[in-house]
Amino acid sequence: MATLRPRIRAVPLRPVLLFLLVPLIYSVSRLHPWSPEKGVCLPPPTAPKRPDHLVLGPAAGQGRHDRLQCHGLKALNNIGISSDRNYSGEHISFVTVFTTYGSVPDGDGKVPSDTVTVGNHSYSKIERSMAILNTFTNFIKVSMPRSNVIILTDPDSKFSVNQGSATLMPIEGNYSRGNLMLQRIKSYIAFLEQKLVEFDRVEGFNHFVLTDSDIAVVDDLGHIFKKYPHCHLALTFRNNKGQPLNSGFVAIRGTRDGITKAVAFFKQVLEAYNLKYMKASRMLGDQLALAWVVKSHLPSALRKFSKHEAFTGEVNGASVLFLPCAVYNWTPPEGAGQFHGCPFQRFKETFDA
Question: Record's InterPro entries (predicted)?
Fold first, then answer.
């Protein structure tokens, strides 16, 4: 499975994206440096403007047989889409947190601009956000047509989705931009606790993949649950000392034990966030809290984050599968919306660095 991250945050083959679907996800806002000793953000360095069009020159992954190869805007090799032939048989619900914002003061009292320009076209921020959300659901419909999408949102948020593409689930909370990552953890907990209440009344069960709403799922992620039947949840890691875990993808086994362990895990992440990282960047605190919880229970994981190999470990009583971002949660190095060098896992089980 796979997911790509053509990422523009709106407001976290074979098992490849979501990670690569496990979706490939792209998060520019999470690349800021931080001070692990103090858990606060450092001033962001000056960086060149991200391109708003496909990169036509050399790109990461060029020439690799297991990556998407492009010439101009055309793909030179084929990536087969999911079908009944490679369907894992696992039932999965994709869960994301999404809300929209109008031209009203943000938490800092400033009124954001209502338009964004992409190439030669200008869109309202709500139009852009909805386009990203629709792309997210459309990728899932193509790659995993038997899956469903659940959007956790602010009850006061004013948007709608095409009938049949997703289900809106309002959850009370503070969805302001500055509080969104904290609220996302709270919304996940509320959602999972509701699923526990419903568990005995529902025939069968679904696994859950909690993701950002700006990913592209490119293959069936159900293989993760099949290949690692004893894991309660899965996280994606990268070789990044400050932010080794990407909170934009969490897979949860849909058993009572799996959901219970996931709730306990998220509650500990929420506690760490509240106690240690409330002063961190508004899009960074959840990842710092996530890494702190994992390191506290499983310090040996730190030595493995520099490798591109999946591994398992126990975190606060939960069996956690760690999957490499390079395969399951890929971020295009060229910037948002870039696909050159996109990994897909059609021939190999693991990604060779």
Answer: Nucleotide-diphossugar_trans (IPR029044)
Enumerate the H helices of 44-179 as residue ranges: 125-143
The phi and psi torsions of 151 (rounded to 5 degrees) equal -110, 115
Q: Are 181 and 285 in contact (CB under 8 A)?
A: yes
- Measure the CA–CA gap between 63 and 158, rounded to whole angstroms: 45
Three-state DSSP at 329 gives coil
- Give CA–CA dist 194/186, Å, rounded: 12
Instruction: Round to whole Å and give the CA distance between 262 and 219.
Output: 24
- Over residues 240-256, mean pLDDT: 93
Res. 335 pLDDT band, cuts 50 70 90: low
* CB hemisphere CA count around 129 (13 angstroms): 20
Q: How many CA atoms lie within 13 A of 54 on its CB side?
A: 12
CA dihedral 112, 113, 115, 117 (to 10 degrees): -100
Instruction: Give the whole-angstrom CA distance, residue 103 versus residue 230.
Output: 47
Span 158-217, pLDDT tens digits: 888 876 779 999 999 999 988 999 999 999 999 999 999 999 888 777 999 999 998 888
List residues bridging with 182 in a β-sheet: none
Instruction: List Cβ neighbours of 43 (8 Å cut-off, separation of 6 or more).
Output: none
* Bond before 180 cis per omega within 30 degrees: no
Answer whether 208's CB lies under 8 Å from 252's CB.
yes
Per residue in 144-159, pLDDT (tens digit) is: 989 999 999 999 988 8
Strands of the 167-170 sheet, one edge to the other = 167-170, 148-153, 92-97, 207-211, 245-252, 233-237, 318-324, 311-315
Q: Where are the alpha helices (DSSP H) in the chain?
A: 125-143, 180-198, 222-227, 256-276, 285-297, 325-328
- Taken in order of first residue, the domains within the chain and their CATH numbers are 89-98+117-352 (3.90.550.10)
